[in-house]
Amino acid sequence: MIKFKNVTKVYEDGTEAIKGINLTIPKGKLVALIGPSGCGKTTTMKMINKLISPSSGTILINGKDTSQTDEVELRRNIGYVIQRIGLLPHMTIEENISLIPRLKGWKKEQYEGRVDELLNLVGLEPKVYRKRYPLELSGGQQQRVGVIRALAAEPPIILMDEPFSALDPISREQLQDELKSIQNTIHKTIVFVTHDIDEALKIADEIAVMRDGEIEQIATPSELLSQPANEFVRAFIGEDRLNARQTQMQVIDMMEDNTNYVHYEESEYTLIPYDATVQEAARVLLETGKPYLMVIKDGKKTGSVTARGILRAVASEGKKEARSV
Ligand SMILES: Nc1ncnc2c1ncn2[C@@H]1O[C@H](COP(=O)(O)OP(=O)(O)OP(=O)(O)O)[C@@H](O)[C@H]1O
Ligand SMILES: [Mg+2]
């Protein structure tokens, strides 16, 4: 877990880049930092691996104050991916990927297999690419190598600063999908900076919206869409996305009771998958006439929704639509 406590950063020329932020990045989650150019995303990220030191406040990693941690050691345990790849041009792909493991003293047998495994993970045939130099790869392929290089030594934390922004839209979508599926298996703590709200909504567990050195809102993608904290966040998300999302709101977003449901009689409810839409949920309630819907996720009961909850969701949808006309 990474924790920012009242962190500020004033650069030497007096620029107040970060004006006192509090932020918790839970272990194993992907948190996106998003906001306009100059709002302080990169500054926030670089304070985690001490490329920049805070002017005041503390940053804790697993409870340990980073100002008390050796920075070389710290950086070896934090993967870092930047926009313009940063592969070393005179090293082969294999050497680039195994750099940190070698610095950490892994043996050849340990990292060789790892290099192949990682190349396969992002669809680059090891036999073809292992011995190539970065310039012998396309931009998208180089960026894939940049991502897996950050994963190579299995750091618990990975920082990614607009890693896909230099890519064409198709490679970008592919890499987003790949990152998502990799994260589903490795569960690293990832801080992901982006300008692109669609990218953030797609890949993040939580999104921190920043503005002018401050955090305006931290929320899950569905909370952000259903309850933007203020006009700035609303505008940042965009009216189109807000409207599009409402019709797709899932039953799990409407769940209102996640304690009492265990006592309900089986005759009182109907099971419904967590990703059913409002409309589907309303239809099931009408058809069955039962008082509750039991929300099922990963094969387990996770909570319930009442007819009232559905009505409320539908009503707030109507209200938002009315406001946007
Ligand atoms: N070394 C520096 N000296 C002085 N000011 C700086 C320095 N680095 C960044 N800044 C300023 O701090 C503010 C935050 O910069 P930062 O790079 O963190 O923004 P960002 O959100 O990453 O922007 P972008 O989306 O353009 O990458 C900006 O006003 C920037 O001009
Ligand atoms: Mg930046």
TrEMBL record:
<keyword id="KW-0472">Membrane</keyword>
<keyword id="KW-0677">Repeat</keyword>
<comment type="subunit">
    <text>The complex is probably composed of two ATP-binding proteins, two transmembrane proteins and a solute-binding protein.</text>
</comment>
<keyword id="KW-0067">ATP-binding</keyword>
<protein>
    <recommendedName>
        <fullName>Quaternary amine transport ATP-binding protein</fullName>
        <ecNumber>7.6.2.9</ecNumber>
    </recommendedName>
</protein>
<keyword id="KW-0813">Transport</keyword>
<dbReference type="InterPro" id="IPR046342">
    <property type="entry name" value="CBS_dom_sf"/>
</dbReference>
<keyword id="KW-0997">Cell inner membrane</keyword>
<dbReference type="Pfam" id="PF00005">
    <property type="entry name" value="ABC_tran"/>
</dbReference>
<dbReference type="GO" id="GO:0006865">
    <property type="term" value="P:amino acid transport"/>
</dbReference>
<dbReference type="GO" id="GO:0015418">
    <property type="term" value="F:ABC-type quaternary ammonium compound transporting activity"/>
</dbReference>
<keyword id="KW-0129">CBS domain</keyword>
<feature type="domain" description="ABC transporter">
    <location>
        <begin position="2"/>
        <end position="237"/>
    </location>
</feature>
<dbReference type="InterPro" id="IPR003439">
    <property type="entry name" value="ABC_transporter-like_ATP-bd"/>
</dbReference>
<dbReference type="InterPro" id="IPR005892">
    <property type="entry name" value="Gly-betaine_transp_ATP-bd"/>
</dbReference>
<dbReference type="InterPro" id="IPR017871">
    <property type="entry name" value="ABC_transporter-like_CS"/>
</dbReference>
<comment type="similarity">
    <text>Belongs to the ABC transporter superfamily.</text>
</comment>
<keyword id="KW-0547">Nucleotide-binding</keyword>
<keyword id="KW-1003">Cell membrane</keyword>
<dbReference type="GO" id="GO:0005886">
    <property type="term" value="C:plasma membrane"/>
</dbReference>
<comment type="subunit">
    <text>The complex is composed of two ATP-binding proteins (OpuCA), two transmembrane proteins (OpuCB and OpuCD) and a solute-binding protein (OpuCC).</text>
</comment>
<dbReference type="InterPro" id="IPR003593">
    <property type="entry name" value="AAA+_ATPase"/>
</dbReference>
<dbReference type="InterPro" id="IPR027417">
    <property type="entry name" value="P-loop_NTPase"/>
</dbReference>
<dbReference type="GO" id="GO:0005524">
    <property type="term" value="F:ATP binding"/>
</dbReference>
<dbReference type="GO" id="GO:0031460">
    <property type="term" value="P:glycine betaine transport"/>
</dbReference>
<dbReference type="GO" id="GO:0016887">
    <property type="term" value="F:ATP hydrolysis activity"/>
</dbReference>
